[in-house]
Amino acid sequence: MKTPSKTLTVLPDETPENSSAEQLIDALRTKGFRITKIRQAMIEALVVASQPISAPELLEQVAYKHPSVNKTTIYRELDFLADNKILSEIDILDGMKRYELLHPDHHHHHLVCTSCKDIQCVEVPHHDLHALEGKIQQTHNFTVQSHVLEFFGLCRKCS
């Protein structure tokens, strides 16, 4: 896979080893949380997703194995997983939030196609962002606690 530029690296589609479904489920069990069939199915679907996934897409995937699952359960579980730092919410400004697993070793950002809504994960070198955060803190007397960075444009297919 080609890299879009010298400073951006497209992350592979494979999920990092530290984010396997079994490891995430074990971590939740260790914290004393119950692992329901729906919770497990959602985590498994998020692990294999090649890009951030919407709640309706997640519902569709979980319903394939568990037809009785409802929308409320999916949203409640998404809130639970976000509260427990298992996933993050992505807003690509189209009115539908998407979700992806948090990767502690791979802080990344997104390339969002404004035409087909495809989302690619990209890594920006940490030293560049740390320098920018330092400059923001110095210039504006503002302590950066986190940031979100999405690049909007046209993918290769749409341009």
Walk me through the structure.
The chain is of the alpha+beta class and 159 residues long. The chain folds into two domains: 67 residues, Ferric-uptake regulator, C-terminal dimerisarion domain (Dna Ligase, domain 1), CATH 3.30.1490.190; 88 residues, Winged helix-like DNA-binding domain superfamily/Winged helix DNA-binding domain (Arc Repressor Mutant, subunit A). 38% of the residues lie in helices and 18% in strands. It is built from five helices and seven strands. The strands form two sheets. It has a four-stranded mixed sheet, with no helix packed on it. A three-stranded antiparallel sheet has the order 2-4-3. The chain is globular.
Helix content range of the residues, please?
A: 25-40%
How many structural domains in the coordinates?
A: 2
Beginning-to-end CA distance, first to last residue: 18 Å
Main beta-sheet annotation: 4 strands, mixed
CATH topological fold name of the largest domain: Arc Repressor Mutant, subunit A
What Rg do the Cα atoms give?
17 Å
Q: State which percent range the strand residues make up.
A: 15-25%
Output the number of helix runs.
5
Report the strand count. Answer: 7
Any idea what the shape is? Answer: globular
Which superfamily, in CATH terms, is the homologous superfamily of the largest domain?
Winged helix-like DNA-binding domain superfamily/Winged helix DNA-binding domain
Return the average pLDDT rounded to an integer: 83
